[in-house]
Design brief:
Elements lengths: L1 H6 L2 H25 L38 H18 L6 H31 L5 H4 L4 E6 L9 E7 L2 E8 L10 E7 L4 E6 L6
Helix pairs in contact: 2-3, 3-4
Length: about 200
């Protein structure tokens, strides 16, 4: 293993590092998702770039749906997965590095698009399955897995349990920002995709 690694060029070492790291994180996210943990693994980082950039979101769409969230850690991992494996597998077959990188980027973007569509489709099926969110969601409790900005200045994401099933929604709050992992309670339904929540048992200083 060490001999193989040292025999690689610096470029190939970087590409393999990206590929293997993305593959490992992808496997972990997939396992956590099927275990009902939302796939974020407790990692959360937000940036103010016209919307939250989270290290754990999974949702996305190709239209003006309010649940659209392109810049997520999951999408970054998916891009690196497609980009990395394409680069290392085609490195010896495509001698032109510029062309190789172009193809790898296309594959990475394509994989992100496919996964976003798949999650959106699954989410739509889940949320439309005989559930009236306007009556079923209010009063439900859950947890934040993408920080909710304060005073409705942006949307975060939550997971709540409705009819013994874990469901994912965008969320806003009227109070202070609610960080990842915080227990919350739904107090109002804004629309079919967005809920108004409050921190459950907030700490009073």
């Amino acid at each position: 293993m060490i001999t193989w690694w040292t025999s690689l060029s610096t470029t190939m070492q970087v590409l393999w590092a990206i590929t293997l790291s993305a593959s490992l994180i992808f496997v972990i996210q997939t396992v956590l998702t099927f275990l009902g943990m939302g796939g974020d693994g407790g990692i959360d980082t937000d940036f103010d770039a016209g919307g939250d950039v989270d290290f754990g979101g999974a949702d996305g769409t190709f239209d003006a749906d309010p649940s659209m969230n392109l810049l997520t850690f999951r999408n970054l991992v998916n891009f690196c997965l497609g980009f990395g494996w394409t680069s290392v597998l085609l490195h010896d077959r495509i001698p032109n590095n510029a062309l190789l990188m172009f193809i790898a980027v296309l594959v990475g973007v394509g994989l992100v698009a496919v996964v976003m569509w798949l999650f959106k489709w699954l989410s739509g099926m889940q949320q439309s399955g005989n559930i009236d969110v306007h009556t079923a969601a209010v009063g439900c409790e859950g947890k934040v897995y993408l920080t909710i900005p304060a005073e409705r200045k942006g949307e975060g994401k939550i997971q709540i349990t409705i009819n013994n099933a874990v469901r994912e929604y965008d969320a806003v709050t009227d109070g202070d920002a609610i960080p990842t992992g915080t227990p919350i309670k739904v107090i109002e339904v804004i629309n079919n995709y967005t809920l108004l929540v409050e921190e459950l048992n907030p700490t009073i200083i």
